[in-house]
Design brief:
heterodimer; A: 266 residues; mainly alpha; 2 domains; B: 232 residues; alpha/beta; Rossmann fold; 9 helices; 9 strands; 35% helix; membrane (chain A); transmembrane (chain A); transmembrane helix (chain A)
């Protein structure tokens, strides 16, 4: 059922994002072509096309944020909720399907932005140069860190994804909390967001005070001790992942509780 | 087999306001039930509780012996009193979606009904009038071979001609074992198809009876009994 929900979520959002991605790539190409024709790169058409490209780029990222909020609110907590929430599906599956699809579009937007900037800026030979530099960097990293390079990359990717997820889930939880109020829902949602963010900050501050963390920060490690440094850094990274995961589950639990037990559609 | 819908001591409060208080009803399978009451009497609240769109403050509501949840949603076909369809989809996409999520959805039935109401399955919901959207919703809901149909004000927003078609549709599409609960205050329009009525007022059940009993024992139509019970 989660898969089916995601399929419809991608259909509902893809009709906005695919044209945006396409427009961004088209204007990147136009900008590229226009600026390469004339001897002076900054003639009027090229500038106009560059500005449009910039606007689409900003629009794309604003849209990912708006869509994330709008899909959750409109599809589950407004009239459309009467359809979605009477499907034979558990509420958490709705939340997770929306979360995963939002993450997908954010990553896809970043990827498209990167590709479009390559389209504009890439000069002949840049690609081979880039690849050579990247391989060199990679070899150096393997030399310095050994096989833990892979663990590092894995940890960093997980950390980025889970931070992204907690950023989205805090917004879902705020919208759900705002829904509990009969009036001034918008204001209540903002209030809930501020309260949740503050609580999260306090949570992380406390975390810095627990014995383990104190122990970590008091450890004396000389700068030469790369292996020891690494161990500490790994611990910190894994700790960060675990605590972010805890945050995610807390936000998810709040949202799920409200959707299943405190729902009150208008 | 257990009753299809059973409430005992069902209470729902919104803040201090009690929308339903201590409702006890038992609806047996295989009949058309009118859930009748004036505006704000708690009809929609009861139906929403049955669909897990609300959670009871106290008491229980059981659908086929089970609390509302994924299992009951599979056998309940619900028509809300508002249009819940998003604007950007086409009718055939909605049919696909319903087939995807509901095992008991019969797409052929849906296409047949669309045809007889002259609604083009390729049309987007955005281009449709409110009445047409309501018809599409009813078609989707009645194309499911459900055990319990909960229809909240199904005839409120459409013209009398469409009203007749809708009632025929309801009659034609429900099978012997299924139960249909229709909530409305337009009683005279649906009186002829009802087997059983539940009168509800200010969150309380004031009368439950079979329609035959009302006619035989009291010698009245449901409509005139309603006017009598809810006299202002």
């Amino acid at each position: 059922m989660l898969g089916k929900l995601m399929k419809y979520e991608i259909k509902a959002t893809g009709r906005i994002f695919f044209p945006l991605f396409l427009a961004l790539l088209i204007f990147a190409t136009i900008t590229r072509l226009l600026s390469s024709i004339g001897p002076e790169a900054w003639d009027t058409p090229a500038v106009i096309s560059m500005v449009i490209y910039g606007i689409i780029m900003v629009g794309m990222f604003v849209m990912t944020l708006l869509m994330m909020i709008q899909r959750f609110y409109k599809n589950l907590l407004s009239d459309e909720g009467y359809l979605m929430l009477t499907l034979p599906v558990k509420p958490w599956q709705h939340i997770v399907s929306k979360l995963l699809v939002s993450m997908l579009w954010i990553v896809a937007s970043i990827f498209t932005a990167f590709i479009s900037s390559l389209v504009i800026a890439l000069k002949k030979g840049d690609l081979t140069k880039g690849i050579t530099e990247f391989t060199a960097l990679y070899h150096r990293a393997v030399q310095e860190l050994g096989s833990s390079v892979y663990i590092w990359s894995f940890e960093i990717i997980i950390m980025l994804l889970i931070s992204l997820a907690s950023g989205i889930l805090v917004i879902y939880a705020s919208i759900a909390l705002g829904h509990l109020f009969n009036r001034h829902k918008m204001l209540a949602t903002f209030g809930a967001f501020i309260v949740l963010s503050t609580l999260t900050q306090i949570f992380f501050t406390f975390l810095g005070m627990v014995p383990g963390a104190t122990y970590l920060s008091n450890l004396h490690i000389s700068a030469n001790d790369i292996l020891g440094m690494q161990r500490i850094a790994h611990l910190a990274m894994v700790g960060g992942i675990i605590f972010n995961a805890l945050l995610c589950s807390a936000y998810l639990a709040i949202t799920n509780f409200i959707l299943s037990k405190r729902l009150n559609l208008e | 087999m257990s009753a299809i819908l059973e409430c005992s001591g069902l209470t729902k409060q919104f803040g201090k306001k009690e929308a339903l208080s201590g409702v006890n009803i038992k609806v047996e399978r295989g009949q058309i039930v009118g859930l009748l009451g004036p505006n704000g009497s708690g009809k929609s609240t009861l139906i929403k509780l049955a669909n897990e769109l609300l959670t009871p403050t106290s008491g229980t509501i059981l659908i086929g012996g089970k609390k509302p949840g994924v299992d009951t949603k599979k056998i309940v076909s619900y028509l809300p009193e508002r249009t819940y369809l998003n604007d950007w989809m086409r009718v055939n996409q909605l049919i696909e979606m319903f087939s995807d999520f509901y095992e008991n959805f019969n797409p052929e039935k849906a296409y047949d009904m669309l045809k007889s109401l002259k609604i083009n399955p390729d049309d987007r919901l955005k281009t449709m009038s409110k009445g047409t959207k309501e018809k599409v919703q009813l078609i989707l809901v009645m194309s499911r071979e459900a055990e319990l149909y909960l229809l909240d004000e199904p005839i409120g927003g459409v013209d009398p001609a469409a009203r007749d078609y809708i009632l025929q549709t309801i009659l034609r599409n429900y099978n012997e074992k299924a139960t249909v609960v229709i909530s409305t205050h337009l009683i005279s329009d649906i009186e002829n198809i009802l087997d059983y009525v539940i009168f509800i007022n200010q969150g309380q059940v004031v009368l439950t009876s079979s329609v035959d009993d009302i006619r035989d024992e009291k010698g009245k139509s449901v409509d005139s009994l309603f006017r009598e019970v809810f006299k202002c």
